[in-house]
């Protein structure tokens, strides 16, 4: 049986939120009850809660500070999480904030979910500062594990360089992720690639596990009128 | 060099390090805290010093102290925190000390919110603190441009012995784009023989102060400052003009708003409306030339801002009554959309011909 809870962690700006959103949509196709919990207490920009309407449209439950608190610059999380944690019919995606500071918000739930064996995925973008080396990434993983009081169970290679991503970039990230995986014994689960690059990555996807993702956090000039 | 994917705030910090800035004094505030956090980690790696001050006021005065020794130094904040720095900024100008100050603007007035805004335009271009002064203000529109302008900011600061402001909005600070850093050719900057690093029996004491009790002497100092501002106005104007040659209508926007305006302009051009864009990159000195060159040819200018209309005053001064100046703005952290800007163009142009 698949894990009930999947937690997305990683370096600040590694792509956790985009992957969490995509995962929630994917899971909704096979589960009737999916909740995405926005635990980002680090950064008030580009969070899952920004696309609340998309979740409503797809009948996915968004757990996040609501109303005027949604945009507050306060380290708050919603107590609603307890309701879904103890309801066995839910599939739960947790979108944590970046780095160890973001993972601190996870630590408080240790006693709630330890017996549920949550899957905790580390999202790696090898083009971000401080996680572009094996040592840097391993240190980040260790710090996150300490703060979250959980072990990372899988690594996602989300190496990209925004709209300028090439197959070479993804392969470079894969190499880095494989090295980290060997050194930490944490399995590499898959690479996430923008669906804009489907054609260019046909060969890559034949030999590597790939999950294609859509981007939801867009800048105001990125959609063309 | 390889490209990296970074947030705007991180880019400002890394670009400052590339420009030789080894000292940062600051206090975190959303939406620019990543800049402070990045510096905390980065500066010790290059043998520099990061210090989180007890307040913005403390930070700007630490900058004053460090700048007095002739080192490249920086602080950053966001609107309410930037307001707190005004006294220190005025002191820096009066004492002629080079420093770079970054303001990642959020919705105001007051505490406002943490969403993007440009409503500190008046504050950064018209003085901000007390006394007769101007500060060069650079407003990047992309993360790559931050790299160039941060280098420029430090060079201008040293060349004219003045604080320089880098202004962006919360969106610019938080968004991610690929950037490439490069080792800039060292620019010719004057030797800092005024720095208070101790005398070695080789001359009189060096004094850095903004205090001058004698009225005639202070007026003389003010004349000197004004002459410097005039020189900056002549040498440090930066702007970008896009399809203004044949334009009947010209949009005026800076920073991220200029990028939002671009697609609206393209769409209007497809509909047969000749629209161009003037993007001031230096907000002070304000680029007057592109307006002087176009003001007798265009039917109208439209300034677009994330404010209730501030830059529009400088646009009107530059246009000097030669053409009407229209306005579209959103405030309080609301970002104007491409559609809104497009509809504004259509309404000013009197509709699309069908």
From TrEMBL, chain A:
This is ATP-binding protein. It comes from Pseudoneobacillus rhizosphaerae.
Automatic annotation (TrEMBL), chain B:
Keywords: Coiled coil, Oxidoreductase. Its EC number is 1.2.7.3. It comes from Pseudoneobacillus rhizosphaerae. The keyword Nucleotide-binding does not apply. Pfam families: PFOR_II (PF17147), POR_N (PF01855). Residues 208-235 form a coiled coil. Gene3D superfamilies: 3.40.50.920, 3.40.50.970. The gene is korA_2. CDD domains: TPP_PYR_PFOR_IOR-alpha_like (cd07034). Residues 14-192 form the Pyruvate flavodoxin/ferredoxin oxidoreductase pyrimidine binding domain. Residues 247-341 form the Pyruvate:ferredoxin oxidoreductase core domain. One of its GO terms (molecular function) is 2-oxoglutarate synthase activity. This is 2-oxoglutarate oxidoreductase subunit KorA. It comes from the Bacteria.
């Amino acid at each position: 049986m698949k894990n009930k809870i999947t937690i997305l962690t990683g370096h600040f700006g590694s792509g956790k939120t985009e992957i969490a959103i995509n995962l929630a949509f994917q899971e909704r196709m096979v589960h009737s009850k999916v909740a995405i919990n926005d635990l980002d207490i680090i950064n008030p920009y580009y969070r899952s809660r920004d696309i609340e309407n998309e979740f409503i449209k797809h009948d996915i439950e968004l757990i996040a500070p609501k109303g005027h608190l949604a945009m507050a610059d306060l380290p708050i999380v919603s107590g609603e999480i307890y309701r879904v944690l103890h309801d066995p019919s839910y599939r739960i995606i947790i979108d944590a904030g970046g780095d160890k500071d973001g993972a601190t918000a996870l630590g408080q739930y240790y006693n709630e979910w330890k017996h549920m064996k949550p899957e905790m995925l580390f999202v790696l973008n090898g083009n971000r500062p401080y996680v572009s080396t094996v040592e840097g990434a391993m240190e980040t993983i260790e710090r996150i594990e300490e703060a979250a009081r959980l072990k990372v169970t899988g690594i996602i290679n989300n190496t990209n360089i925004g709209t300028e991503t090439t197959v070479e970039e993804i392969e470079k990230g894969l190499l880095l992720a494989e090295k980290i995986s060997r050194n930490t014994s944490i399995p590499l689960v898959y690479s996430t690639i923008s669906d804009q690059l489907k054609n260019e990555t046909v060969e890559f996807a034949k030999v590597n596990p790939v999950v294609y993702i859509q981007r939801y956090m867009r800048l105001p000039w990125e959609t063309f009128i | 060099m390889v490209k990296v994917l970074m947030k705007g705030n991180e880019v400002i910090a890394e670009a400052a390090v590339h420009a030789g800035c080894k000292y940062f004094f600051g206090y975190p505030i959303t939406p620019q805290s990543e800049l402070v956090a990045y510096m905390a980690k980065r500066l010790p790696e290059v043998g520099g010093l990061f210090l989180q001050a007890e307040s913005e006021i403390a930070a700007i005065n630490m900058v004053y102290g460090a700048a007095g020794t002739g080192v490249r130094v920086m602080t950053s904040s966001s609107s309410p925190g930037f307001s707190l720095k005004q006294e220190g900024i005025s002191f820096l100008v009066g004492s002629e000390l080079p420093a770079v100050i970054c303001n990642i603007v959020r919705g105001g007035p007051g505490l406002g919110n943490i969403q993007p805004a440009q409503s500190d335009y008046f504050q950064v271009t018209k003085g901000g603190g007390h006394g007769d002064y101007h500060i060069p203000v650079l407003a990047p529109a992309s993360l790559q441009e931050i790299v160039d302008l941060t280098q420029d900011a430090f060079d201008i600061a040293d060349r004219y012995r003045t604080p320089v402001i880098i202004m962006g909005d919360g969106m610019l600070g938080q968004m991610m784009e690929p950037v490439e850093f490069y080792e800039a050719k060292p620019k010719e900057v004057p030797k800092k023989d005024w720095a208070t690093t101790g005398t070695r029996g080789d001359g009189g004491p060096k004094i850095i102060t903004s205090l001058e009790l004698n009225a005639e002497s202070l007026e003389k100092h003010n004349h000197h400052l004004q002459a410097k501002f005039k020189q900056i106005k002549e040498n440090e104007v930066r702007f970008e003009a896009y399809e203004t040659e044949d334009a009947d209508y010209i949009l005026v926007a800076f920073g991220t708003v200029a990028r939002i305006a671009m697609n609206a302009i393209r769409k209007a051009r497809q509909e047969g409306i000749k629209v161009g864009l003037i993007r001031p990159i230096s907000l002070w000195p304000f680029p007057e030339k592109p307006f002087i060159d176009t003001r007798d040819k265009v039917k109208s200018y439209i300034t677009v801002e994330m404010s209730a209309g501030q830059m529009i005053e400088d646009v009107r001064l530059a246009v000097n009554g030669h053409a009407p100046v229209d306005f579209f703005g959103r405030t309080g952290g609301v970002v104007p959309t491409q559609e809104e800007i497009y509809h504004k163009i259509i309404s000013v142009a009197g509709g699309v011909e069908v």
